[in-house]
């Protein structure tokens, strides 16, 4: 399925990072807003590289992905300083703004562990059904990443302090083992 420019309804994918969303220095948060190849509760999977074109366009235009509260465009609560794809998915790092009332509330809820979900707001550019009936999103126009109560993807979460670095180390080790296994399989 190919969506033409300017068409297609906005969509949201709620993701709760399995490693959690990291909150440090009171306002700095990081975590995975999307994980590749994992079916969400709506039956969608995001393919590696799905965000690349959108992120490149935002960079070229000098714009950023917005940080919203519960997908409400009237509730900007911070800024995403870094949004990138890696082997796992869409990783985000940003700052909740304490100068904004909702930002203070969000930081307090994340710090207390009461709120830990992330969700992407986007428009589907390209998608197709796979053999198991999942919709595989291969190109996405990313608009925003929100802090949310209920993420659609259970792995989309804010990481607790220190978890993200540890998680990346384990992911690097897992990649090394995967590469070795693939090398042995090729013979």
Automatic annotation (TrEMBL):
Keywords of the record: Hydrolase, Protease, Viral release from host cell
SUPFAM superfamilies: Herpes virus serine proteinase, assemblin
GO molecular function per UniProt: peptidase activity
Residue span(s) of domain Prohead serine protease: 26-160
Keyword Plastid: no
GO biological process entries: proteolysis
Name of this protein: Prohead peptidase
Organism for this UniProt entry: Cereibacter ovatus
């Amino acid at each position: 399925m190919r969506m033409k420019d300017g068409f297609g309804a906005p969509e949201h994918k709620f993701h709760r990072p399995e490693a959690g969303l990291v909150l440090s220095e009171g306002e700095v948060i990081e975590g995975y807003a999307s994980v590749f190849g994992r079916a969400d509760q709506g039956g969608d999977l995001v393919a590696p590289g799905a965000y690349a074109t959108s992120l490149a366009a935002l960079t070229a235009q000098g714009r950023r992905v917005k940080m919203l509260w519960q997908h409400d465009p009237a509730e900007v609560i911070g800024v995403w300083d870094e949004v990138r794809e890696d082997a796992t998915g869409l990783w985000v790092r940003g700052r909740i703004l304490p100068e904004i009332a909702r930002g203070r509330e969000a930081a307090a809820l994340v710090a207390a562990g009461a709120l830990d979900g992330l969700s992407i707001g986007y428009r589907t550019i390209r998608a197709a059904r796979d053999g198991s009936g999942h919709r595989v999103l291969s190109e996405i126009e990313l608009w925003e990443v929100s802090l949310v109560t209920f993420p659609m993807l259970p792995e989309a979460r804010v990481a607790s302090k220190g978890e993200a670095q540890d998680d990346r180390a384990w992911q690097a080790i897992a990649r090394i083992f995967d590469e070795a296994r693939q090398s042995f399989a090729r013979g």
